[in-house]
Model the fold of this input.
Amino acid sequence: MYSLLDPGQFVVFITGATSGFGAAAARRYVGAGGKVIATGRRLDRLEHLQEELGAENCHIVELDVRDRAAIDAAIASLPAPFDAVNIVLANAGLALGLQPAAETDITDWETMIATNVTGLVYTVRALLPGLIARGGGHIVTLGSVAADYPYPGGSVYGGTKAFVKQFALNIRSDVQGKNVRVTNIEPGLTETEFSLVRFKGDESKAARAYEGARAMNADDIAESIFWATSLPAHVNVNRLQLMATDQAFGPFDIHRQR
Ligand code: NDP
Ligand code: 8X3
Done:
């Protein structure tokens, strides 16, 4: 059985490896001697990543996590040694828009739910039996501070991330005794393409989200993911919440009647 302590034996299936946390994690794991299966919708980005990391370390699959049959097919056709997945980084996700609920575009809500909830469930359900059959492994999900702290315009995004957290904790109960660890990583303000996606390509709006603050970056989160998966096999980090030092909590918003 592989040792959870030896990064050289890590085989990591990553959803959303074309950008942000997923790409940074791919670099972190390969840098430590592991192998990664990098997936996402933008094939050109995956090809560049593979070129950078080497085809012997990085297998790529063009994949939309909303497509259950495509996930199953991708897993079924993994070549050795990439077929011995022992870490699943279920990272693909997005926020779309920041409008008040009554004004939001309902298709944005549908896309967030389809990606962050349904896509996550497809990914974990497809890969979990293999982890168990191979004697153990680790599932890492990407939650958010938005799961615990509501903010205006975040209703469905925050709702999907609350699902991610509860799903991860419940999966952990299901795999008790099977040597499978489950960790929900819960970051706050982190500068990636996240805001560019949220604001649909509006670069100035995206930049404003991070302006003047020392946001975390993708490498910070990749390091925390790597750390959680590198701990001794008897240690399970259930939830790991991270915030930029320059981000904290606000007061309750009281609507005054006068
Ligand atoms: P990025 O926008 O930089 O990366 C998102 C990744 O998700 C991309 O690789 C994208 O790939 C992939 N993705 C989106 N939709 C799909 C889909 N349908 N199928 C497959 N892949 C998809 O954002 P981050 O790296 O910041 O975000 C990664 C995760 O972390 C998300 O779940 C996000 O909600 C969460 N998170 C982010 C925070 C932040 O502040 N940045 C804080 C807390 C959590 P492609 O478009 O090529 O398919
Ligand atoms: C991303 C962090 O605060 O923009 O999950 O929702 S936040």
The longest strand covers residues 180-187. The mean pLDDT is 97. Residues 15-22, 40-42, 45, 63-66, 91-94, 115, 119, 142, 144, 187, 189-190, 192-194, 197 surround NDP (ligand 1) (CB under 6 Å). The beta strands are 11-15, 35-40, 58-62, 87-90, 137-142, 180-187, 190-191, 216-217, 239-242.
